[in-house]
Write a structure and sequence with these properties.
Blueprint (H helix, E strand, L loop, with lengths): L17 H6 L10 H11 L5 E4 L6 H8 L3 E6 L2 H11 L5 H13 L11 H6 L2 H13 L6 H12 L21 H10 L10 H13 L11 E4 L2 H4 L7 E6 L14 H6 L18 H17 L1 E12 L2 H14 L4 E6 L7 H4 L9 E7 L13 E3 L14
Parallel strand pairs: 1-2, 1-4, 2-3, 4-5
Antiparallel strand pairs: 5-7, 6-7, 6-8
Helix pairs in contact: 2-3, 4-8, 5-8, 5-10, 13-14
The protein binds S-adenosylmethionine.
């Protein structure tokens, strides 16, 4: 698998390379640690292979694959996730054009754009920031146009953050809290005056920082689609040698509600969250059917001898379903598992939640024809649970 040559992937952590700066684009809940994706891509694929992630979130897997010289493909159903993934793998090449477009948006702000419509907006944003956000919601064609998409990605990245690090009053960067909760919390903490920021100057500066080392290598070569994987994967060109993914976890994150403020800023969501329970995958039956359909679609875009690596919730509810679906999909494969090394500080811990987290499990599926790579030394071989005589599903 991996060629034992010089280090294939440029540094992806820190700030010194274009690749490390663009890798940071897009705060998103439950994202892969970049080093995990790098280790898997390096160990389980080689130059020229294609890596596919059908639940790509903010695009960590396709991004790492692309900058490592692999073909890269991914999709996500959430427009916020897709925006980050699409822009980090294909940012507009010119900083000057991006800054000019930011200034153009500022000139289109109308008087009423800066008027808050509820208490949350009153306390969350200064008038200039709110005016810019509303103008951007109207003007930016982020689905169709790479320049507008890049500007939108900067806007939603910095939309809410710690005080001074974004356009808002103090808010979590990854997950937008309930508006009523935020209002109560700002009042309790005496944070009742939102910061008065010049949004265009702020975003121009942040864009300059992101572009200071250039754009990532091989930018533009990845294929990242917006939509339900079962619908978009059949039209994607990938013949993946490695499927690297992390499916949603049952009952944990609600990717639409958690991103309600960013979805609103993109003009695709209401100005208050929609807590519809379906978005949280609370029904095990519906979850299994969604997972089976998406992973089968990925199977049809992968090679006969593809290696699969999944990071999943360690809680039995999710883990058992993933194991069952994968055993049905790849009954002839050898299976390896390990508890995933937990990050030193989880995001919730940074916000004062010190309860023990159940953690994740990494699952690797290796075709019988492939030798076990050194990377799997820390994994345990797991007997296949497939029934005798069970056959792999047919590719179309
Ligand atoms: C655990 S997250 C993946 C995070 C990703 N590994 C990263 O580094 O950002 C799971 C993702 O699956 C997406 N998703 C859920 N159902 C989907 C579907 N049917 N098709 C495509 N994406 C889906 C969610 O929007 C979410 O972004």
């Amino acid at each position: 698998m991996s060629t034992n040559g010089p280090r294939e992937v440029p540094p992806l952590t820190g700030f010194r390379t274009a690749e490390s700066r663009w890798a940071r684009l897009g705060p998103y809940y439950a994202m892969f640690p970049i080093e995990f994706a790098r280790q898997v891509v390096e160990a389980l694929s080689k130059q020229g292979d294609t890596v596919l992630d059908p639940f790509c979130g903010r695009g960590t897997a396709p991004y790492v694959a692309m900058v490592s010289g692999r073909g890269a493909a991914g999709c996500d159903i959430n427009p916020v996730a897709w925006l980050y993934a699409a822009v980090k793998t294909d940012p507009h090449p010119s900083l000057a054009d991006v800054q000019k477009r930011i200034d153009e948006i500022a000139t289109t702000v109308r008087d009423k754009d800066g008027r808050p419509t509820d208490e949350f907006q009153t306390l969350a944003f200064g008038r200039r920031a709110l005016g810019f956000i509303n103008a951007a919601r109207r003007e930016l064609q982020w689905r169709a146009n790479v320049l507008d998409r890049t500007v939108s990605a900067f806007l939603v990245h910095y939309l809410h953050a710690k005080l001074g690090q974004g356009l808002s009053n103090q808010l979590r960067p990854t997950k937008a809290m309930c508006p009523d909760y935020s209002v109560r919390w700002w009042r309790k903490c005496g944070l009742t005056t939102p910061p008065d920021i010049d949004p265009a100057a702020f975003l121009r500066d942040r864009a300059a920082w992101r572009y200071a080392k250039g754009v990532p290598r091989h930018a533009g070569s990845a294929s990242v689609e917006l939509g339900n994987a079962t619908e978009v994967l059949p039209d994607m060109p990938a013949a993946a040698s490695l499927v690297l993914t992390s499916p949603p976890y049952i009952g944990v994150a609600n990717y639409r509600a958690d991103n309600w403020l960013r979805l609103w800023a993109l003009g695709v969501g209401p100005p208050r969250p929609n807590w519809s329970i379906d978005q949280k995958f609370c029904s095990a039956r519906k979850y299994e059917s969604m997972l089976g359909a998406v992973l089968h679609a990925a199977y049809c875009r992968s090679r006969q001898d593809a290696v699969w690596c999944l990071r999943v919730d360690a809680r039995e509810r999710t883990l058992d379903i993933v194991r069952r679906v994968m055993a049905g999909l790849l009954p002839d494969y050898r299976t390896y598992e390990r508890p995933s090394p937990s990050p030193r500080h989880t995001q919730t811990r940074l916000y004062g939640d010190d309860r023990r987290k159940p953690g994740d499990v990494d699952l690797v599926y290796l075709p019988r024809s492939k030798r076990k790579p050194a990377f799997l030394r820390s994994f345990k071989f797991v007997r296949s649970v497939a029934r005798r005589g069970q056959r792999a599903k047919k590719r179309p």
